[in-house]
Design goal:
The chain is 19% helix and 16% strand. The protein has a domain of 214 residues. The chain is globular, with a radius of gyration of 20 Å. It is built from 9 helices and 13 strands. The protein has 353 residues and is of the alpha/beta class.
Length: 353
């Protein structure tokens, strides 16, 4: 099917095919969730019968018509991605800058994923930034994270960092992002190479936080949750660096896989959250009684692929059209014989209307 998820053994001819039910898409991007959305209950999701055996979707906040979706980041072209590593006095980061450079920009990593699923229309390049002895470092061969001034419990605030209601900042994920930017700014870091010419906005910001996601730990006191959001709605406002660069959108991902396993995170969760930054909603069943759009879409259970996130599946046909990466062939009335190639290399979709 595709390099990301090929271990499942899906036949090579499998391609993306979607019966578009328009009502599912009606009004997408025109309505926002309340600033403090209700949490999905902490339950194990029953999975519809399937030939695929894999982990259930961890419980988490649902992201549908989220603020980050209404102001999506760029979806095309060669983009500069700024990755920040952050840790806390009570939760240290575990992995070197070079390990993260490989994770994001190496073979089979984050950037490769988006190059493949966009058919080379969205390509990321960039750096992984930490700090050592108060000095910013890029792609370091040492474990060098930006140490924040407060423990993770401060930012989690018994709500895994998701409370973005008025007055809560900086005790939420927006506080983590802002404090990391402030630390780099005060150390004289040059953000200019990552800013978009003309707007001076750093549109592609990704923050890796030490520890595991609340979706796996279930510990709202000591854990943060992965997300994609905007500083404009996190309580502290858009951040402007000393050099004039502005920050708003961010993707927010954990550094460990599972429940504090000590293993580096797999890309599935992070590419899923970045899908929100690009403008996509969650497409799994929020009641966890079905698989939603199914096992083979990144915004649903495709996050996990066949290896719990090591090789996530592609975005679905709807997403590829919505993001401008594919133009489907409209299927006319009558009988039609169609041959579709592997979705990893052939940009071919069918659309039934």
């Amino acid at each position: 099917m595709n390099r990301f998820g090929a271990a499942l053994g899906v036949p090579a001819g499998w391609a993306l095919f979607l019966l578009w039910i328009t009502i599912v898409l009606a009004g997408c991007g025109t309505r926002t969730l309340p600033s403090s959305a209700p949490a999905v209950p902490q339950v194990r999701a029953p999975i519809a019968p399937s030939t695929v055996a894999f982990a259930t979707m961890p419980s988490r906040h649902v992201q549908t018509q989220q603020d980050s979706i209404e102001k999506p980041i760029p979806r095309r072209g060669r983009q500069s991605l700024l990755v920040l590593l952050v840790d806390f006095p009570d939760q240290a980061g575990l992995f070197t800058g070079q390990a993260w450079q490989a994770y994001f920009f190496g073979s089979g990593g984050f950037a490769d994923y988006y190059t493949e699923v966009s058919y080379r229309q969205l390509r990321y390049q960039g750096d992984v930034i930490g700090m050592a002895d108060g000095i910013p470092t890029a792609n370091s061969d040492a474990v060098a994270y930006i140490r924040l001034p407060h423990p993770v419990t401060f930012y989690a605030d018994d709500g895994y960092g998701f409370d973005v209601s008025g007055g809560q900042f900086p005790q939420n994920h927006g506080g983590v992002v802002t404090h990391a930017l402030q630390a780099l700014d005060q150390a004289g870091f040059n953000f200019a190479p990552y800013a978009t010419p003309g707007t001076n906005e750093v549109e592609n910001l990704l923050v890796v936080f030490a520890g595991s996601s609340y979706a796996y730990t279930g510990d709202a006191h000591n854990s943060l949750e992965a997300t994609a959001y905007r500083l404009a709605f996190a309580g502290g406002g858009i951040y402007q660096a000393r050099g004039g660069q502005r920050f708003d959108n961010y993707t927010f991902c954990p550094d460990q896989f599972g429940d504090l396993s000590g293993e580096q995170a797999r890309i599935g969760v992070c590419v899923h959250e970045h899908g929100h930054a690009l403008g996509m909603p969650d497409l799994y069943d929020f009641s966890y009684t079905t698989t939603g759009v199914g096992n083979f879409d990144l915004m649903a259970y495709g996050t996990f692929g066949a290896t719990e996130g090591l090789r996530p599946f592609h975005l679905g046909a709807f997403a590829k059209e919505f993001l401008g990466w594919s133009r489907p062939t409209i299927v006319p009335n009558g009988t039609l014989t169609v041959t579709l190639g592997p979705s990893a290399v052939e940009n071919n979709l069918l659309k039934l209307v």
